[in-house]
Design a protein that fits this description.
Elements (H helix, E strand, L loop, with lengths): L1 E8 L16 H13 L6 E2 L8 E10 L6 H14 L4 E9 L11 E10 L12 E3 L5 H8 L4 E4 L14 E12 L2 E8 L6 H13 L7 H8 L14 E7 L1
Parallel strand pairs: 3-10, 5-6
Antiparallel strand pairs: 1-3, 1-4, 2-3, 5-9, 5-10, 7-8, 8-9
Helix pairs in contact: 1-2, 3-4
Length: 246
């Protein structure tokens, strides 16, 4: 029986989604928990490979069990074992899936949120969960710059080193910038993303917000197709995989 699970996690002390030879990851904890209650050695496949330090509100994964189990009890068993492992991971939901469902390849889109705390005072409650920028950012300027990123483009200028995607061509469906008090949130959606694409776009738009770049410079940076022309990579701590669309 194939099952689909929805997961949240705090990526601060994790090596990301993918299992590594040294250190702990989201996939490692899920597979250890699954082995604990099913007594089976089972692979868990995720919808996206988030990096070290990146969080998730709605990561999706799937796995196969040799025997059918009630979804409520699977969720309870997962979370009991994750607590025992002291894992910063929680299984929010478990659903039965069709045999052809694949968490990664069946996905039609992915949504991320990037959070900036825009205030002088350092944060205590949101440590490792936001990028704190201690000087004012012009949100309207960043919104103007963001418009140039929407649609189908060659995103080479925002492609991280080591990206394994076959093509730099991507279609950005949504890039909204919302505010709430001192927080600035970047809401980003696309079918798929290049390595570090969201963090590189946010880092560059932050340079628009602080006046180092003009909004129209984003268009020029896109056209250059050169990573060196864009801004710095935003820290991992502010990024959340928000949802996966099927």
């Amino acid at each position: 029986m194939r099952y689909k699970i929805t997961i949240e996690y705090d990526g601060t002390n994790l090596l990301g989604w993918q299992k590594q030879e040294e250190g702990v990851s989201v996939q490692y904890f899920l597979e250890k928990a699954l082995e604990g209650f099913s007594h089976q050695n089972i692979d868990v496949f995720g919808a996206g490979r988030t990096d070290a330090g990146v969080h998730a509100l709605g990561q999706v994964a799937h796995f196969d069990l040799e025997t059918k189990m009630d979804t409520f009890h699977i969720r309870e068993a997962f979370n009991a074992w994750l607590r025992n492992l002291e894992a910063p991971v929680s299984v929010l939901d478990v659903e039965e899936a069709t045999p052809d469902f694949h968490a990664r390849f069946s996905a039609k889109g992915r949504g991320y949120i990037y959070r900036i705390l825009n205030r002088r005072a350092p944060t205590v409650l949101l440590s490792n969960r936001v990028w704190t920028v201690g000087y004012p950012l012009d949100v309207e300027r960043m919104r103007e710059g963001a418009k140039f990123l929407l649609g189908h483009h060659d995103f080479s200028s925002f492609r991280g080193a080591g990206c394994q995607a076959l093509s730099p061509l991507k279609t950005l469906d949504k890039l909204d910038i919302e505010t709430s008090g001192d927080e600035i949130d970047f809401i980003v959606e696309a079918r798929s993303f290049l390595y570090h694409q969201v963090r590189n776009m946010v880092g560059t738009l932050k340079s628009v917000g602080d006046g180092k770049l003009a909004p129209e410079d984003i268009k020029t940076i896109l056209e250059k197709k050169d990573r060196a022309s864009a801004g710095a990579t935003a820290p991992a701590c502010g990024l959340y995989l928000n949802k996966v669309m099927y």
